[in-house]
Specification:
single chain; about 475 residues; alpha/beta; Aspartate Aminotransferase, domain 1; Aspartate Aminotransferase, domain 2; 2 domains; 4-stranded mixed β-sheet; 16 helices; about 15% strand; globular
C-alpha cells in the first residue's frame, strides 16, 4: 500500500474533521480562550492539551461522558486508564459518601488504610506497601528505596518508556520528546563496551546535567543488553525499572522468558528489579503483571486503576527492601493514605474489580480488538491491534511492536486523523498515538459496537 498516499489522505480527513470539531464545540473553544489566561496551554497537565484545543468535559456516568457543549460520548479514554470502574459507579459513590461527612483528611493512618494495604499486598503478591498520591510519586519513591537498599546511584530504564515526570526518569521518553524534537533520538554516549546501552540528554528541560549519566538506557525485550551493561557496571546500578507491558508506545508485550531473565540478571548483580504497573496493574489481570506473566519483581509501583477514580498511588514489594523507609530513606506525604482516596480504592479493589470482573473485561477487549482488526484486514491499512483485558490499542504498523524503535516505524499521521474522526462520532479517546483505549466494567457490547463501527468507517474512508 502506498504510504505517502495514505498520509495525504489522512491529512485531508484530518483537516475536514478538525473543521467539524470546531463547528460543534463552541463552548470548548470559549473555555479554552478563558483557560489560557490562568493555565498554560489552557490545561492542568501537558498530557491534556489538544488540537485545535481540548474537548472539555463536564460530567460522566457509567461508560459515557459529556462535554461542555452537551455532546455525549462513549468513553474509551478512561482518564488515561484510571476509570476501569467507569464513571460514578454506585459502589464507589457510596464509599465516598460514607466518609465525606466523617472527615476526608487527617494525615494519620486509619483502619481503612491498613485494610487497603492488606488488599493491595494480597492482590499483587507484595510483602509490604506504602501509599503515595500518583504514579510519578510511586516510581520516584521506589527508585529512592532501591538506591538506599543497594547503596548505589545509577538506574537502568527502557528506551522510550515513561515512568512519571521526576528528573531521573525523564530520559528517552515520549511524548515530551516531540516538543523538543528528539522523538527519533535512539542513541547517546555508550554505557558499556557492547554499545547497546547508552546515556543521553533528557527529554525535558530543567533536568540538571549532573544527572545525565546516572540513567542508562537499554531496549525493551533485550535481556542481553541488560546483561552486558550489568557485567561491566552492575556494582554501580541500584535498580532496573520497566513497565512489564510497555504502555507508552501503544502496547508492547514482553517476549517469552524476558521478564524472568531480567529478574535472574538483577538477582546475580544485587540490583533491585522494579515493575512499573501504574498502567497495567488493575487492567491486564486481577493480579497485574505478576499474575499474567508469573514473574515477581523486587518492587512494584501502582496508581491509576487501583484508586477507583480517586487520587492514589502505591509502591511495595519485599520487606527486606521496604524496611529502608524506616531506616533513613525519605518516604512521606501529607495526603498519603487519606480517607477519601482509600475509601474509593478499597471499594474498587474489593467490590468492583473482582476476579469475575476481569472475565467480562477480557470478553469486551477481545470484541473490540477483533472488530478493529477486521476493519484493518478488510482495507489493508498498515496497522494491527493489541488486546490485554481492559487495555488495548490500534498501532499503525503492520507487525506488532517489540520495542521503541519499532514504534518509530508507525505512521502517526494515520492516528491523528483517526482521533478527530472518532471523537466527532461520539467515541472519546486519548489524544496521543502512544496511548491506548481503556474499557470499564460498565461498558456494554453496544458501546464496543459503536467504536468498531466508527473505526471501520474511518478505515474505509482512508483508502477511498
Amino acid at each position: 500500500m502506498d504510504v505517502e498516499r495514505l498520509k495525504a489522505r489522512a491529512e485531508e480527513i484530518g483537516e475536514r474533521e478538525n473543521a467539524r470539531l470546531r463547528e460543534r464545540t463552541p463552548e470548548s473553544a470559549k473555555l479554552y480562550e478563558r483557560a489560557l489566561k490562568s493555565l498554560p496551554a489552557g490545561v492542568a497537565s501537558n498530557f491534556q492539551a489538544g488540537d485545535p484545543y481540548p474537548v472539555y468535559l463536564s460530567r460522566g456516568k457509567g461508560s459515557r461522558v459529556w462535554d461542555v457543549d452537551g455532546t455525549e460520548y462513549v468513553d474509551f479514554h478512561g482518564g488515561f486508564g484510571v476509570n476501569v470502574v467507569g464513571h460514578a459507579h454506585p459502589k464507589i459513590v457510596e464509599a465516598i459518601r460514607r466518609v465525606a461527612d466523617q472527615g476526608i483528611h487527617f494525615a494519620v493512618t486509619t483502619p481503612a488504610t491498613v485494610e487497603i494495604a492488606e488488599a493491595v499486598c494480597e492482590r499483587f503478591q507484595l510483602d509490604q506497601v506504602r501509599f503515595v498520591n500518583s504514579g510519578t510519586e510511586a516510581t520516584m519513591d521506589a527508585i529512592r528505596v532501591a538506591r538506599a537498599a543497594t547503596g548505589r546511584d545509577r538506574i537502568v530504564k527502557m528506551e522510550g518508556s515513561y515512568h512519571g515526570h521526576h528528573d531521573v526518569v525523564l530520559f528517552s521518553v515520549v511524548p515530551e520528546a516531540d516538543t523538543l524534537g528528539v522523538r527519533y533520538d535512539v542513541g547517546g554516549e555508550a554505557a558499556d563496551s557492547a554499545g547497546t546501552a547508552y546515556t543521553t540528554r533528557p527529554t525535558s528541560k530543567g533536568v540538571p546535567k549532573s544527572m545525565w549519566s546516572d540513567t542508562i538506557i537499554v531496549p525493551f525485550n533485550d535481556a542481553v543488553a541488560l546483561e552486558e551493561v550489568c557485567r561491566e557496571h552492575g556494582d554501580e546500578i541500584a535498580c532496573v525499572i520497566l513497565e512489564p507491558v510497555m504502555m507508552n508506545i501503544g502496547l508492547v508485550v514482553p517476549q517469552p522468558g524476558y521478564l524472568q531473565a531480567l529478574r535472574d540478571i538483577c538477582d546475580r548483580h544485587g540490583i533491585v528489579l522494579i515493575f512499573d504497573e501504574v498502567k497495567c496493574g488493575g487492567t491486564i489481570a486481577y493480579g497485574g503483571a505478576t499474575e499474567r506473566f508469573g514473574v515477581r519483581p523486587h518492587l512494584a509501583c501502582f496508581a491509576k486503576a487501583i484508586g477507583g477514580g480517586a487520587t492514589i498511588g502505591a509502591f511495595g514489594g519485599e520487606a527486606r527492601i521496604m524496611e529502608v523507609v524506616t531506616k533513613g530513606a525519605a518516604q512521606q506525604g501529607t495526603f498519603n493514605g487519606n480517607p477519601l482516596s482509600v475509601a474509593a480504592g478499597l471499594a474498587a479493589l474489593t467490590q468492583v474489580l473482582t476476579r469475575d470482573a476481569y472475565e467480562g473485561l477480557a470478553k469486551m477487549g477481545t470484541l473490540l480488538a477483533e472488530g478493529c482488526q477486521r476493519a484493518i484486514d478488510d482495507t489493508g491499512i498498515p496497522a494491527h491491534t493489541m488486546d490485554l483485558g481492559a487495555k488495548g490499542c490500534v498501532s499503525y504498523r503492520k507487525e506488532p511492536l517489540r520495542n521503541y524503535r519499532d514504534f518509530l516505524e508507525t505512521i502517526p499521521e494515520l492516528f491523528y486523523a483517526s482521533y478527530t474522526w472518532m471523537v466527532n462520532r461520539g467515541v472519546f479517546m486519548t489524544p496521543g498515538d502512544e496511548e491506548q483505549w481503556t474499557i470499564s466494567v460498565q461498558h456494554t457490547e453496544e458501546d464496543i459496537a459503536r467504536y468498531v463501527d466508527a473505526f471501520g468507517e474511518f478505515c474505509a474512508e482512508l483508502v477511498s
